[in-house]
What does this fold into?
Amino acid sequence: MSTVSRRDALRYGAAAAAVVAGVAGAQVLATPAAARDPRDFEMEYRGKKIKGTHPVTGVAALSARGQRPNRSHEVYINGRKLSVMEIELPAAGGGVTIGYISAINHYEPVLIDADRNSNGLLKLTKRAVDVLGDTELTALAGAGHDHVR
Amino acid sequence: MGVRKSARNLTSGEKAAFVAAVKRLKAQTTGRNYDWFVTTHMTYFASVGGIQYAHRSPSFLPWHRQYLIEFERALQAFDATVSIPYWDWTVDRSITGAPFTADLMGGNGSGGNGPVTTGPFAGSANWRITASASSSTSLRRAMGSNTLPTAAQVTSVLGISAYDAAPWNSSATSGMRNRMEGWQTPNLHNSAHVWVGGHMGQQDSPNDPVFWLHHCNIDRLWSQWQTRWGFDSSRYLPAAGTPGVVDLNETMQPWTGVTPATVLDHRNTYTYA
Ligand SMILES: [Cu+2]
It folds into this structure.
């Protein structure tokens, strides 16, 4: 499976993936803003502005955009980027699931999907704010996780 | 040859010597100083050149073994008597007991989340954080948000004879390594990072000097596993030809000439008491 189709399967269940991709694609053509994921958030939490967006998925949505799609989760805390890293984990019922960590919560993955863990990205973000307290993210928090040398 | 002891058994003189050497390495302005160790850990958490060296891979244990050896050598350049102590969290499970005493690591963060207020690493004047994902210049801890691994959990992990297993990453379900590292239950290593919290839970976790005591304990547990199942190279997996991970005889960056095979038997370099 490609990364994108695996994410779709995660988020919507494999059976629903094709339908959802088609609908999302049509919305992108009409109004780009409609491609926003319903789980995206922008709010204040414990005195900090937090913003999170989920990756755009679905074959139609990707091609309609005609540009490199946002393929990763993005989090900003008070406007500073917190990069989110995918980690393959053993799934509860066997197989593999994807967990997510950040530079702030590095050893405690959260699950993100469209079902029971639909608030996963928000949970990850709130945890980071809890750790930060009265401090802020630095540029190192937004640095990409994969280093090519 | 060094003997690594439990933090709870160090004399006050041994504690003072360890702290002094760590602070001298922190004060060093050139070469592989303390912050070099911090940034190296940050770099190698991810894949470097497509290879997972330090985490989420079989070389988690040998990479950190070499990392500790390098750190210990750096301390010994200041004081040849110093060895890294270990924090046995199956025994020392309190936020006020060893090693979190005022004569060694200091205690919890103020308010349970803020700067550490006791011990030699409290406050940025004593211990200044410079390379971190968060802007705090003082060491922070938020201890006790989860439960430390138990002795029974350690026993269950050490009882697994296979070192590691395909797919050789954080989703491996059989094998000892992923349970020890903690992406698979019962989760030994990751749990203790989370339990200390603050900087220890971040990508820049070596900013908290208790990092070394925790990883010394992880290395000790691996050594116990080796004592039971064998120090020989046939006990490390994978042996050869595995893309993206460090096989037995492949070099572990950023060191030269260091492979899993060269660090498997540590008994001529240091032992555990
Ligand atoms: Cu660690």
Remarks:
- Residues B 189, 193, 205, 215 surround copper (II) ion (CB under 6 Å).
